[in-house]
Amino acid sequence: MSREPGCSRWLLFAACAHLVFLLPPLRARELKGIVFVIQSQSNSFHSKRAEDLKRDILKQAVDLGKELPTVLLIHQIDRHEGAWTILPLMRDFSVTYGRNSSWIFFCEEDTRIQVVKLVETLRRFDKSKEWFLGKALYDEESTIIHHYAFAENPTVFKFPDFAAGWALSIPLVNKLAKKLKSEPLKSDFTIDLKHEIALYIWQKGEGPHLTPVPEFCTDDVNSYMVDHCATTFSNFLPLCGEPVNKEDVFVAVKTCRKFHGDRIPVVKQTWEREAALIEYYSDYADISIPTIDLGIPNTDRGHCGKTFAILERFLNHTSPRTPWLVVVDDDTLISIFRLRKLLSCYDPNEPVFLGERYGYGLGTGGYSYITGGGGMVFSRTAVQKLLASKCRCYSMDAPDDMVLGMCFSGLGIPITHSPLFHQARPMDYPKDYLSHQIPVSFHKHWNIDPVKVYFTWLAPNTEVSSNGKKVGYNREDL
Q1: What's the Rg (C-alpha) of the chain?
Q2: Rounded CA gap, 162 and 263, in Å?
Q3: What's the angle, vertex CA 111, arms to CA 106 and CA 112, rounded to 5?
Q4: Which has the closest alpha carbon to 405: 259, 307, 276?
Q5: What is the full per-residue pLDDT of the chain (478 aa) written as tens digits?
Q6: ω into residue 419 within 30 of 0, thus cis?
Q7: What is the rounded CA–CA span in Å between residue 304 and residue 408?
Q8: d(C-alpha 445, C-alpha 449), whole Å
Q9: Which residues contact 219 (CB under 8 A, 6 or more apart)?
Q10: Which residue in 477, 368, 395, 442 sits closest to 42, CA to CA?
């Protein structure tokens, strides 16, 4: 009998053993000194992904024969409504881990971590000093979502790409906790958390800048470029089986008479053809579109009365077999094709309220909400629970997205965030940030050609992979 298979196995074992001995050994408490915080969500799809990542981190620790590190899931830290905004947790992190740990490492549910490489990367930095580490993003031009900060040269300010993971040394955590104790967070808006955290840590020059770490990566885990990476990013557009049927998504477009002539033609020229069920709601019935007058006068802002009328109409005048409602503005650019893929991951029997998450007053209570411009997605179950409650608009022109956030918060129904929805235009986001996304929506026609934006970023033929992975885009700078 040939001895070659056994010999091959022995040679493979010897080669692997040799590689192990080449790696610098992890000291006893190095891994234990890292507290992993997964920026998770309570929705069943997201919580399962976060639990899978937690198991993977702990399995790597077991395989290394090391003491298990602490792995926390943000959505399970329920003492804070605004736990997802991170800063309200600093005092708890300082009290619990301030003496016996070295680093707090944050990551998203789709971040993939090579634990040994992460430890080796963090080893380069003196853990007794204040460090703010991450993959650096920056604005190429000042943008409304960052309140036009650093308008003279926005490239100078760096903030972390959460998808690559980011880290705070314990001395910095302790400093932030001390500051938060003496100066509580203001009751204000949370719009782009990664930028706002970097601003808070920087403290107008009194705190550290973000230190870029090349080993924190957002390349796909299967890419040839990731050999040096301690982290990678595993997903671009989730797909959980077949996309939901076209007839399972009802699209409601909010408009008014003054925009019938310029905004509605853009919808019809771009994404309307992707929707099987679509209605336009206005303050004027125009049969050429056609629009439906809900009997709600147009308001200059807020539109709460109109949005709640749309919710009532969806519940009472559409087929109960239609499980999903999408509410968009008339200047929202959206890919219904991609949305159908994304919705394959959610259970419409759960109360789902999905989109780009903002926050208001989360340092002092407050609530989260889905910002309306990027599109708001409701399961029929969520609409039923909302309208069965007594929560309604406090005025017809109240901000509809914020009122909905307050209502769902009061009902104990969580907001579900997807970074694939965008309240602003592509040019308002860093290119590196968009490079690991297949976006679902953008918003606003201001200073752009919206048709060109749609066909460059959102049209079905701009991504053709069947497994949801990103393929190359042929994009011009917009």
Answers
A1: 24
A2: 34
A3: 115
A4: 307
A5: 444 444 444 443 444 444 333 445 666 589 999 999 999 999 999 999 999 999 999 999 999 998 999 999 999 986 677 899 999 999 999 999 999 999 999 999 999 999 999 999 999 999 999 999 999 999 999 999 999 999 999 999 999 999 999 999 999 999 999 999 998 887 689 999 999 999 999 999 999 999 999 999 999 888 888 899 999 997 678 889 999 999 999 999 999 999 999 999 999 999 999 999 999 999 999 999 999 999 998 887 778 999 999 999 999 999 999 999 999 999 999 999 999 999 999 999 999 999 999 999 997 779 999 999 999 999 999 999 999 999 999 999 999 999 999 999 999 999 999 999 999 999 999 999 999 999 999 999 999 999 999 999 999 875 443 344 444 444 433 4
A6: no
A7: 15
A8: 7
A9: 225, 226, 229, 232, 233, 436
A10: 368
Full-model pTM: 0.90
Helix (H) or strand (E) segment spanning residue 57: helix 44-64
Element (H, E) at 158: none
The token pair that represents 298 in the structure block: 């147009």
Indicate the angle between helix axes 304-317 and 400-411, nearest 10 degrees.
60
**Residue written as token pair 């930028």:** 195
Q: What CA–CA distance (Å, rounded) separates 93 from 256?
A: 49
Residue 53, CB half-sphere, CA atoms under 13 Å: how many? 30
Between the CA atoms of 35, 39, 43 and 45, what dihedral angle is there, to the nearest 10 degrees? -90
Residue pair 269/263 in contact (Cβ under 8 Å)? The answer is: no
User: With contact defined as beta carbons under 8 Å apart, do 142 and 424 qualify?
Assistant: no
And the tokens for 450?
């919206």
Going by the DSSP 8-state scheme, the letter that residue 247 receives in this structure is G
Q: Which helix (H) or strand (E) holds 451?
A: helix 450-457
368 near 472, Cβ under 8 Å?
A: no
